[in-house]
Amino acid sequence: MTEQVESVISADRSAQAGIERSASLWADAWRDLRRRPVAIASAVVIVLVSSMAAFPWLWTRTDPRDCPIQLSKATPSAAHIFGTNELGCDYYAMTIYGARASIIVALVSTSLVLLVGALVGMAAGFYGGWVDSVLSRLADIFFALPFLLGALVFLSMLRSHSVWTIVLAFAVLGWPPLARIVRASVLATKNMDYVQAARSLGASDRRLLFRHILPNAAAPAIVVATILLGTYVASEATLSYLGIGLQPPEISWGIMIAQGQSYVTSGYPHLLLFPAAFLSATVLAFILLGDALRDALDPKLR
Amino acid sequence: MSDVVLEVRDLTKHFPLTKGIVFKRQVGAVRAVDGVNLTLRRGETLGVVGESGCGKSTLAKLIIGLEKPTSGEILVQGQNLARMRGSALRRARRNIQLVMQDPYTSLNPRMTVGDIVGEPFQIHPEVAPRSDRRRRVGELLELVGLSPDHINRYPHQFSGGQRQRIGIARALALRPEIIVCDEPVSALDLSIQAQVINLLERLQEELGLSYIFIAHDLSVVRHISDRVAVMYLGKIIETGVDTEIYDHPTHPYAQALLSAVPVPDPTLRGLRDQIILEGDVPSPANPPSGCRFRTRCWKAREVCVEQEPALVEREGSAHPSACHFAEERDVVHATD
Amino acid sequence: MLPEPDPDADLLDVRDLRIEFRTRDGVSKAVNGVSFTVQPGQTRAILGESGCGKSVTAQAVMGILDSPPAHVTGGEVRYRGVDVLTLPDEERRRIRGNHIAMVFQDALSALNPVFTVGFQIGEQFRKHLGMSRTDARRRAVELMDQVRIPAARQRVNDFPHQFSGGMRQRVMIAMALALDPDVLIADEPTTALDVTVQAQIMSLLGELLRERQMGLVLITHDMGVVADVADHISVMYAGRIVEEAPVRDIYARPAHPYTKALLESIPRVDVKGQQLNVIKGLPPSPTRVPRGCAFHPRCRYARDVCRQDPPPLYGVDSRRTSACHFWEEVVSARSEGSEPRSREQDEGVGGE
C-alpha cells in the first residue's frame, strides 16, 4: 500500500519536472549550466584531465620513464607527437602522467579546505559570541600569511616533498578564506524567517544547522571551492617550478615547465609550450566553471 | 467565551546597548517592550496595532518564545512560559504557533511543501506516528485550500498567497490553541489579502483558534479583531473592544493614528477630523519621562512630564486609556 | 531646430505607450497602450497591483527605464506638446529635472549615503544652473524649510542615514522640487512609511501642489490614499488601463469588474463587520497574459466574448472610460453582499 503511494508520488514528481519550472535551486542551476557553452567546455576539459590523472594508460601506452637517451630533445614527430625532452623521454606520455599530481593536489587540498573551512565557518557563524571571536581571530592570523610564501616556508622546513606534504601545506594555509565565506553566509541565513520559523517550532540546533542553514548557505562555498581547484593546480606547478614542491623523478607539469624553460631559446619551445598549455587549460577550466556556477546559483541573475 | 488561554503580565524586553569589542560594557538599553499586559480568550482575536518601532514584533517574538523576556510572565494554562526550559518548554510551545509576514522568506526554499508542513511532526514526533504523517500533511493542505497533490513541490512554484497558506498549514500542524499572526497579509498583493483574511476567519471558526493579530494596517485589524490594543514606544496606550477603539478613541495617539488612516471613499474628503502629528517617534533607548507621547501631544501639560499615566478606565474613557486627559474624539467618520 | 514647448498644450499627455521587456526567456509586454493626461494643479492616480506595469510607465515617462531589458516600442510622452521620447538625450535630461521630476518609494536607497543631504539637494543647482557651492547650499536650506524639515540650517550637513524615514522622504521631495518642475511623478511615495508619517507627507505634497500649480502623477496601490488626494484615476491591470474616471465616479459606481472587485475586497477602518468579497485567482504574469480580456479568468461577469476579444475602451460618459464589454451591467449592479457564498468564493481557492 505504502509502496503504491510512493510510486504514485514519484511518478507525479517526474511528470511535473517535465512540464513546468520545478525542483530545487540545484536543479535550476544544472539546467542553467547546460545552456552555457563555456560551462560545458570547461566541464569537458576537466573530465578529460581527470581521466588522464586516473587512467593515464587510456591515453598513452608509452612509459614516460622509459627514456632512450639517444632520442634527446627530439622535435614533435609521428612517433613522438609532443617530441622528447633532454633525457629522451616521450613528452606526450610525460604530459599525460603529469596530470595526476596536479589533480590529486587540487582535489585533496580543496576537500580538506572545504571541510575545515565549513566546520570553522559554521561554528563561528552559528554560535557567535566568544566562539566566533576566537575562530575569527585564528583565521585572521592564517589569513595574514601570504599563501605562496607560507607554503614555501612550510615546505622548506620539511625534508620530504611529496604530493601529500604539498596537500598538507595547502590545507593548513588555505582554510581561512573559506571559513570566512561560510561564516558570512551562515550569518545571513541564520536570520532568515524560515530558520526563525523552525526555531519557534522548537527545532534543535542540529536540525537548524543541517536542515535549514547549511543547504542554503553552501552555494558560495562551493563556487569558491571550484575556483580553488584551479588555484591549487597552478600553485602546485609554481612550487614545483621553484624547486620546493615535487622533485624529479616525479612527473608534474610544474617540473616539466621548470626544466623545459631553459631550452626555449635554444630552439625547443615545445618543452615549455605543451605542459604550460595543459596547465593553463586546466586552471582556466576550473575558474570558468566556478564563474558559471556562481552565475547559475545566483537567483538574482535569473 | 470567558476562558483565558493566554495571559501576559508586566512583560518587558530590554535589548542592552554595549560598547567595546572584547570587553563589552552596557551603556544603556532599548526598551522594546516595557510592561505589557494582555489577556487572550478562547476563540477571540486580539489585534495589536502600532507603528514601526513600537515593539509589536518583539512582543510577538516574546510570546512565541523566540526571545527571552527581561522580566514578566507569559501564562498558558497556568504555566509560565518565561520560566520554562527544555522539554517542558518544547511541549508548551506546541500550543502557540506563528504565522509570519513574508511568505517569500518564511519557507525554506530547499524543502518541499510536504517537508515544510510535516516538519512540526518531526520536531515533535509524539504528536503523530510516522505512518500517519503524510496523510495529516495532505489534510492540512486541504484545510488551507491547497491541493494535497502539491506535496512534492517547492515553495518557489507557488504564488505569495499560496505560500502564506503553506505557512498557515505549518502553524496548524500541531493543533495549537493560539496563533500569533505577525503582519500576515501586509506582504501580499491587494487582491490576495482578502483571500487570506477570510481563510484565517474560517479556520478560527472551525478550529476554535485564538489569534493575536499584529499589524500596522488598522483597517485590516478592525476587520478581523474582537479587541484591539494600541502600542506606542513599548507600551499599550489604549485597549478595548472594536467599537471602543475605532468609534470612541480616547488617547491622543490612538486618535492621531486612526485619523491618519485613509478611507477609500472620496466623498469623505475634508469631512474627517484629521490630526497631523509633528515630528518623529522618540528613540526607545531614551524614552521621554512621564507619558511617552507627551513630546508630540497637543494636550501635554506639566503632569504628563512628571507622572506616567496608567492604562485604566478614566472619567473620559469607558475603556482603559493611558492618558491623563482622556477624552473621546471621533476621527474615523465624517464630522461637521 | 527642436520643438518649443507650447504653453497651451496639455501639461503631460501620454498616448498609447507600449513597453516590452526582452529577456532570455522571451519578450513580455509590460505596458500595452497606456494613455493619460495631467493638467496643472491636478493629481492623476495610476492605481494597480504589483506587476501591472504602473512603475514601468512612470519610469518611461521620466526617461529612466532600464534599457535593456526594457524597450519603449510605441506611443508618445508629450510635455506641453513636445514628444520627449523623440528628443536627443541631452534635451531629455534638460526636461527631466527642469520640468518633470520624480519621487521614489525607497528614499534610503535613492539617496547617496556618502554625501550630505545639503550637497545632494544643491547638486541640481550646481549642475543645471551653474551655481556656486555656497549659493547652492543656501538654496538647499530654503528647500528643506519648504518641505518642513525642522532645523534645516543645522541639518543640511547631515547624512541620509541620520534622518528618519519620513524626513528622508521630505529630502527626496526637496530634491525633486529643486528646479521648480511642473510635473511631479511620485512612485509609491508613502508605501514604506507608517500611517501617521504617510499623512504628514501626503498633506505636504497636497500643499506644494496647490502653491506651485504642479501636476502630480501618483503611482500607488492604496485605494485609501487615492480617495484622499486624487482628482482622476487610471486603474491598470496587466499592462493596460482598464478604467479611467474622476475620483468620485469610480468609487461611487465603478465601471470595470476589477475596480469594483478591488473596492469590495478591502476592509475599511470606519465600517464594522464588513463582508470582504474576494477576487479569485492571481494577477497574470506579464509573460502569460490571458487571451481576450486579461481579467476574464478572475471576472464574475465574464462570458464567451471576453475569452476571445480584448475589450476596447468604451466611453461610459463624457468623462470616463472602461475596458469591459459589459460595463453597463457593472455600473448598474449593486455591490454584492449578503447572499450565501461558497468557501471557494470567500477565499479564492482553486483559482490560483
UniProtKB/TrEMBL annotation, chain A:
Keywords, alphabetical: Cell membrane, Membrane, Transmembrane, Transmembrane helix, Transport
PROSITE patterns with a match to the protein in the record: ABC_TM1
Residue stretches spanning the membrane: 38-59, 101-126, 138-157, 163-182, 213-234, 272-293
Localisation per UniProt entry: Cell membrane
Cellular component terms per the entry's GO annotation: plasma membrane
Membrane-related topology note: Multi-pass membrane protein
Keyword Transmembrane: yes
Family: Belongs to the binding-protein-dependent transport system permease family.
Name used for this protein in its record: Peptide ABC transporter permease
Organism of this sequence: Planosporangium mesophilum
Top-level taxonomy: Bacteria, Bacillati, Actinomycetota, Actinomycetes, Micromonosporales
From TrEMBL, chain B:
ABC transporter domain ranges (all copies): 6-258
SMART domains the UniProt entry points to: AAA
One of the GO BP terms on file: peptide transport
Pfam families to which the protein is assigned, alphabetical: ABC_tran, oligo_HPY
Keywords noted in UniProt: ATP-binding, Nucleotide-binding, Transport
Signal peptide: none
Any one Gene Ontology molecular-function term assigned to this protein's record: ATP hydrolysis activity
Family: Belongs to the ABC transporter superfamily.
Official protein name in the record: ABC transporter ATP-binding protein
Automatic annotation (TrEMBL), chain C:
Bilayer topology: Peripheral membrane protein
Alphabetized UniProt keyword annotations: ATP-binding, Cell membrane, Membrane, Nucleotide-binding, Transport
Pfam families: ABC_tran, oligo_HPY
Main location as per UniProt: membrane
Record InterPro entries: AAA+_ATPase, ABC_Ni/Peptide_Import, ABC_transporter-like_ATP-bd, ABC_transporter-like_CS, Oligopep_ABC_C, P-loop_NTPase
Name under which the protein is recorded: ABC transporter ATP-binding protein
Organism: Planosporangium mesophilum
ABC transporter domain mapped to chain residues: 14-263
